[in-house]
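Recall the central idea of this unit: under ordinary conditions, the amino acid sequence of a chain determines the structure it adopts. In this exercise we apply that idea directly, starting from the sequence alone.
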Amino acid sequence: MMRPPPRPDPLSTAKRQSRGPGARQPGATGPGAIRLGTISLSTIGSSATRTKATNATAATERYPSRNGFTLIEVMVTLFIIAIGALGVAGLQLASMRSNHSAFLRSNATLVASTLIDRIRADPQSFVGVKLDTDRPGDDPTFKAWANELKRLPLNPPTDGSALGSLDCSHGNACNTGHCAITIRWEDSRAVGFGGAMADASKRAETLQFQVCTRVPL
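Accordingly, the structure predicted from this sequence is:
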């Protein structure tokens, strides 16, 4: 008794038709053979994990620290800035005191120079005289100079002495044949400023500028 031929598998027939006449079977060898491999899901998962780890490491190297500042760090920074600002303010105050004292001294120097020029223009009128701004006498030249001195921003000394004086008498602070021109003023802003100028101001409560000029006889 003969056995009937096997019935063809529809699925196998559809695969052979989709491959075409030139398609190679899996496992075939030769120059035109195409191997179809399988990729496991575990390999794909491990590759994705390594990629994520590499990206995280690169981000960490690029941004080493993403932590913010604490309140204590901010307070310490503000304290240091405040100390520096106070130092700058003190330096500015000392500079203003020094500039003001230099301004007053410059005024005293200039007004003394004008009196020296007037004495040299008429020396006979000043031989042996002793005058000050409180007792200017009858000399018009010295009176005009005393009025100019009072208009300057020089405060009179607090010890009651005259703002300006002229001493051409024998035995004055200068040598014989010379006149001593002295200008004294109160400079309270110089008190507390370091240096010899502050020490002199604390001792005498006034600053003094004195110049000697020779009287050409």
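Residues 103-214 form one domain.
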